[in-house]
Amino acid sequence: MGVAGIVTETIPKILDPLPGGRHLVNGIEFIVGWARANSLWPLVYGTACCAMEMMATGASRHDWARFGVEVARATPRQADLIVLAGTIVEKMGNNLVTLYQQMPGPKYVIAMGSCSISGGPFYYDSYSIVRGGDRLIPVDVYVPGCPPRPEALLYGIMHLQKLIRKEGRHNPWKVKEFETPPCIDIHSNSKKEWVEIETQKQAGMTTARERFKAENPDYVPYKAVRRPKDKFPEVPRRPVVQSGLANQDIYAIVHEVFPEVKQVKQENTDAENDKKLTSETLLEFAVTKDHYLSLLTLLKTHATLQMDLLLQVTAIDQHDFFHILVHLLSTRHGHKIFVRCPVAGEQPEIETLSHLYRGAEWHEREVYDLFGIIFRGHPDLRRLFLKEDFPGHPLRKNFKDPSRIVKRPY
Amino acid sequence: MNDIAFPTTNAIGDLVRANFPASSAYIINGILGIAAVLITVALIPVFLVWMERKVAAHFQARLGPMRVGFHGTLQSVADGLKLLFKEVLKPAGADSFGFFLAPILPATASFLVMTIIPFDHHLQVTDLNGGVIYVIAISGLSVFGILLAGWSSNNKYSLLGAMRSGAQLISYEISLAIIMLLIVLVSGTASLREIVLSQQGTVLDWWIFKLPGLGLVAFIMYLISSTAELNRGPFDISEAESELTGGFTTEYSGISFSMFFLAEFVNMFVAGTLTTTFFLGGFLAPQIGLGTVDLLFDAVPGFVWFFLKTCFIIFLFMWFRWSFPRLRVDQLMELEWKVLLPINIIVLVLGAIFVAQGWILP
Amino acid sequence: MEINHLQAPPGFTDTAAAEATTEEYYLNMGPQHPGTHGVLRLVLRLDGENVQEVVPHLGYVHRAIEKMAENQTYLQNIHLTDRLDYLSSFMNNLGLCMAIEKGLGIGVPERGEYIRVMLCELQRIQSHLLWWGVLGMDMGAVTAFLYGFKEREMITDIFEEVCGNRLTMNFFRPGGSSADVPDTFLPRVATVIERLKRALDEYQTLLTDNIIFQERTRGIGVLSREKALSYGCTGPVLRGSGVQYDGRKNNPYSIYERFDFEVPVGQGGDSFDRYLVRMEEMAQSIKIVQQAMETFPTGPYRSKEFSKYRIPTGSYFSQVETARGLLGIYMVADGTAKPYRLKYRSPSFSNLSAINEMAVGYKIADLITIISTLDLVIPDIDR
Questions:
Q1: Does C25 touch chain B (CB under 8 A)?
Q2: What is the domain partition of chain B in residue ranges?
Q3: Which residue of A307, B93, B254, C373 has the fewest C-beta atoms within 10 A of its own C-beta?
């Protein structure tokens, strides 16, 4: 027991039996509670969309400084309050727990928005989400919304202030410890209570309804009328404004060097016939692994094509093989080219493009991370988004991890 | 000099002296003086924090604290109490002795400087002959606190912040000392009380106006150097929240953080009082040469004028902070060594010439 | 988050310079750091205050939106695009809706197009206002942050009146939008535009003309034209480096080809150029909104609704110029009601990848400014 222990436990224990001592202790508690409630310094912590609304709460119109929530601290050591603004993912989870542990007690947590309450819109099908901040750290106040309005957050703060003022010696001044270890589902425990509350509410409602009927015998309930649905016209597509080289010209240039490179067959355009390549068609070249690098080198260095910007490198899982998809853009002319290259096998491999376009480095790391495709000659092939020890590659169609994914029931 | 018009003793001190033997009266008066300074040191930040928040809020088109007391007047009381009852953490690997000693040093420094500030002609704990030198010597103490805090925290952000702060404080102290030297030169005394008394007369006798042109330049230089010395925006690189999270205070929590917080605001007050003393006539009422108005102003106690002038200077500090972006660390050093210091030396030389030639307003 | 002094963390190329006379050290910045705009984590190799190398670590808000997209219908996917780059949610909605329209071969009536363009341009202004404020705050001018938000709230009010939401709009649908704009829309936009014009002058005085601000941004974080292209940067970052490419001008979508506006381009590619490009873009967006207000048509706001959106097999691509750059949506359809693969090419992802080129050789404080002028939205990077 340190100095804090003497203040919070020994002194009240001595004072309590003395005449009037209890009132003294209560008085001090009241003052301390008042001070804590009116001086909640939040930690600068925002992960996603809700952070914007949190910033808006701090800005001129809503101004949380009015409630004493002014001094937003960047360091957890001086903060009293974490507003969990935004989604918490698995990789962030450990850091969040660290941040919470670094805060000095007493510390409070507001879960702002659906994501930090339960996972929100990312509850189903997501392999990386933490379904609720309360699985990691104890939460005091929940503010629902996606994202909640600033007024809602202010209400949450006022509610937290009310809770803090009520804090007595029995819910004490001492440091809040971890009541629940991380990653335990506290919802299942509270479900029973919820059912109880709900039954009580229903019973109350029934009696109230009966009483109302007895008091107003000639009441006719209002019947909702559905607004007639608007009729909208069928509108034809406006012609696309052509920019850059025409698709046929690009096709001709490429075909001249690589006669075996073909436009990918598409349902809506009969691309087997080259002449039908219109401006609406997506220009996609199917290329084999052998010609992959040489075709892209040509596209980059060709004087008329000038594909100087790499927009993305990605992959598509076609069940028995993968398509590598490279997407190029010419900033001078404005035309775009897609290159598709099939790769197969359990550990598919392909050449890297990072020496052609530096930007490809990260795109390839992403593909490696999510699809498990290896890029030969890549300077720094590590996982990009997921933890190093994440099992499997989640964007593969056969990825299954019931411990992480909750299947959408509809 | 001027002992009759401006007595150095006040009623309480006289009362003690009258009722106790000389030796014990000496001790009792000393204790009373220290207690008065301590209470001032404790209360000034309460007011200044509230003022800072309100000033900032109204600059930023919002209201600031509103819920506790009238327009949030009790906000800083709530903050202080909360910090008092907060857990004090020491990061693993931090050096206990240094870590807990560090917050005390800046607070002590500002407390010690407060003892020689002439709040009114009879409100001063002691008047040292070499008051200016004492100020320079003591205010250097806060650098140790900051450096120690950064070094003992075992955190790279703290260390970076402390190193920045150390370099900054030591550099800007030179500018500050040169301007102080100028005032000592023109007023012919190093005692703060006598510097104030050397500005008697009308408003034009204040050092900011008495040296034609030069006084204003020196005032601006002093203001800039003080802002830097205070670690406040636009020179707040040592705390630089968006870069270093909290600078040297990153690892401090609860009461030890509040000591830094307190020292920052007391330092701001001290800087305000020193500026007032050197340039704005200290506790002297502004005399503008109109008989009735002068009489009316004279009737207001000196310490009220002193606080009003100090608050004006502090308002300027706040204005700077909430208007300008922050300088980078190398730009800050360039500003001091390549701009401020040469100008200050020129100002000092010119001041000597002014005195020698008698180019001082009558 | 502990980093060993002696052992280089992963991702660093050049760990120990032989000629170095001072001891270098590693500094971890983030994922909770006020200067990194959310949950970006950077590991820096520093020589004193000088940045020697920056290694970003991503994935601290990787929410698996692309995986979820494969299990949701096309319409359900619209609301997920709001949460990618939440500051350009209208534009993200528009991108996905255009891809679906391409697949279904449906068009959009005039009024629908005008609503789209006006809302997108207003949102571009809104997003830039926030960026401006946050840039100010990152450089220590906290007042700028609150001024930016002051005007931003006025635009947010318009959005709230139009679609009931402040941030995540979920408003556009294939063929138009989910509702018509209210009658008060045009008068309110006119008021806000007037206010914004005055505000932009105010900003000029507060930040642009400030000597400290100019000293902090001029010649800092230079990204050459070649580097910008090589890293695939888009948007104001690319234009700041002197490449005249704007998706609205070079690959016009919706009805952008009808409006008269200019694409501001920087010269040197430093932080100040990127700043000026964005400031000018706000003025240009105001110009577009004004033109749209003059010719705002009446009529239906959307085309015929479908009971079920089934897109024929094939791949579809649409791109929009968001406030941050070029958002590409690549959609592979297999004839069912759900996409087979939906890939978002997010602008911030590529813009961030060039951070090492920009930050090396400058100070830590400059790194914060550079991150700020990139205008990153981390969920957009991580998806």
A1: yes
A2: 11-357
A3: B93
More confident: C200 or A249: C200
Chain B: residue whose CA lies nearest to A7? B85
Query: Mean pLDDT, 10 residues at a time, over chain B (362 residues)?
Result: 58 77 81 84 87 88 85 86 83 84 86 84 79 86 86 86 87 89 86 84 80 85 89 79 78 86 87 89 80 80 86 90 86 89 90 80 62
CB-based contact C347:C235 (threshold 8 Å): yes
User: In chain B, what is the straight-line distance between the N-terminal and C-terminal CA atoms, in Å?
Assistant: 19
Chain A from 164 to 183: CB within 8 A of any C CB: none
Model confidence pLDDT, tens digit, residues A88-146 = 888 888 888 888 888 887 888 999 988 888 888 888 888 888 888 888 888 888 999 88
Please report how many Cα atoms fall inside a 13 Å half-sphere around the Cα of residue B235, on the Cβ side. Answer: 25
Residues of B with CB under 8 A from a CB of A: 53, 57, 60-68, 72, 74-75, 77-83, 85-89, 241-242, 245-246, 249-254, 257
Q: What is the pLDDT of residue A211?
A: 92
| Contact residues, chain A, for C168 at CB < 8 Å | 49, 146-147
Whether pLDDT at A271 is above 60: no
Instruction: Tell me whether B56 touches chain C (CB under 8 Å).
Output: yes
Candidates C353, C107, B1; CA nearest to A309 is C353
The predicted pLDDT at position A174 comes to 43
Q: What is the CATH T-level fold of the domain A38-165, as seen in this structure?
A: Rossmann fold (3.40.50)
Residue C190 pLDDT: 92
**Looking at the 3D structure of chain C, how many domains does it have?**
1
Domain limits at C373?
55-63+108-116+124-305+355-382
Closest chain C CA to residue B156: C27
pLDDT class of A14 with cuts at 50, 70, 90: confident
Please state the three-class secondary structure of chain B as a single string: CCCCCCCCCCHHHHHHHHHCCHHHHHHHHHHHHHHHHHHHHHHHHHHHHHHHHHHHHHHCCCCCCCCCCHHHCCHHHHHHHHHHCCCCCCCCCCCHHHHHHCCHHHHHHHHHHHCCCCCECCECCCCCCCHHHHHHHHHCHHHHHHHHHHHHCCCHHHHHHHHHHHHHHHHHHHHHHHHHHHHHHHHCCCCHHHHHHCCCCCHHHCHHHHCCCHHHHHHHHHHHHHHHHCCCCCCCCCCCHHHHCCHHHCCCCHHHHHHHHHHHHHHHHHHHHHHHHHHCCCCCCCCCCCHHHHHHHHHCCHHHHHHHHHHHHHHHHHHHHCCCCCCCHHHHHHHHHHHHHHHHHHHHHHHHHHHHHCCCCC
Considering the domain A247-376 in this protein, what is its CATH number?
3.30.460.80
- In this predicted structure, the answer to whether residue C166 has a pLDDT above a threshold of 80 is yes
pLDDT at A191 over 70: no
Q: Cβ-count burial of B237 within 10 angstroms (0-12 exposed, 13-18 middle, 19+ buried)?
A: buried
B53 CA to centre of own chain: 19
- For A38, the closest chain B residue by CA position comes to B78
Q: Which residues on B lie below 8 Å from C205 (Cβ)?
A: none
Closest CA relative to residue C40, chosen from A404, A385, B157: A385
Instruction: Tell me what ipTM this predicted complex has.
Output: 0.87
Burial of B177 (0-12, 13-18, 19+ CB in 10 A): middle
**Separation of alpha carbons B155 and B144, rounded Å:** 17
Q: Could you tell me which residues come within 8 angstroms of residue A63 by beta carbon, excluding any fewer than 6 positions away?
A: B57, B62, B63, B64
pLDDT tens by residue, C239-293: 888 888 888 888 888 888 888 888 888 888 888 888 999 999 999 999 999 999 9
Residue C121: predicted pLDDT: 92
User: Where do the domains of chain A lie?
Assistant: 38-165, 247-376
Q: Token pair 């009310």 is at which residue? A: A162
